[in-house]
Fold this sequence. Notes:
Order of helices and strands: EHEEEEEHHE
CATH superfamily: Peptide deformylase
Structural class: alpha+beta
Organism: Salinivirga cyanobacteriivorans
Distance between the termini: 26 Å
Strand content: 25-35%
CATH architecture: Alpha-Beta Complex
Number of strands: 7
Strand order of the largest sheet: 2-3-4-5-6
Number of domains: 1
Function: Removes the formyl group from the N-terminal Met of newly synthesized proteins. Requires at least a dipeptide for an efficient rate of reaction. N-terminal L-methionine is a prerequisite for activity but the enzyme has broad specificity at other positions.
Helix content: 10-25%
Shape: globular
Largest sheet: 5 strands, antiparallel
Keywords: Hydrolase, Iron, Metal-binding, Protein biosynthesis
Active site: 141
Amino acid sequence: MIYPVTIIGHPTLRKRAEEVDQNYPDLEKIIDNMFETMYESDGVGLAAPQINKSIRVIVIDGAPMAEDDPDLKDFKKVLINPEMVDEWGEEKLFNEGCLSIPNIREDVNRPSEIKLKYYDRDFNLKEEEFKGTQARIIQHEYDHLEGILFTDRISPLRKKILKSKLLGISKGKFKVSYRTVLGKK
């Protein structure tokens, strides 16, 4: 099942998502549907708040970006209840976009390396370090679990310039090939 993607202005995108356990109803099905939704929407990552589920679940498949970054070729992950343990390294600018903020791309500064604790799909506890684009994808999706959007991390001047566009998007003034859902007014 392909979920509609929640769009900026939707209240679920601004909430801190709740942890889940192995008994969370239909978790396997939700994860499968999240991957399906992400592929249908041409994304490389998707956090549960983006499908209007305020739970701490992320799916990632970096393969579509592997031509530009070979480290992403086999970078496919399910992150359940992730916890950012540490971020370090040189901060780097990278042009980011988001399925929940269609047709907007901006340069975002993020640390180049992270350490993450999470449960995998089988609820095995993992602690791993990631760097480069892998770290960036995780940081972007992790922000969704914290109620943060990538536009919160851009300069005040860029935010001011984008304000009317973002407001328009929140009211449905955009075109995409995937299903979406706006916040209730």
